[in-house]
Amino acid sequence: MGQLSQFAPFLLMFVVIYFFMIRPQQKRAKNEKEFESNLKVGDKIVTKSGFHGKIAELAETTVVIETMSGKLKLERSAISLELSAALNKKA
Length: 91
Prior knowledge:
This protein is α+β, with helices and mostly antiparallel strands. It has helices at 2-37, 81-90, and strands at 44-46, 52-58, 62-67, 70-75.
């Protein structure tokens, strides 16, 4: 019983770290991956670097977006979930 009470603070620390740091990050990564797979031609998006545009073409790992100044080819992971959601909420 004495050994269990010695390791209880470490166990409690691990549980707290898991629920406040690891689990939310895993959830966010899952949402990002789902968002990337649900993209379709014609969606209005914002990239993580701030480019606004509309999806013109989709490939397995890349996307071509149409902006006011032309077309840009980007990685799918460069599209921001939060900024695109905010853009689509306004419209």
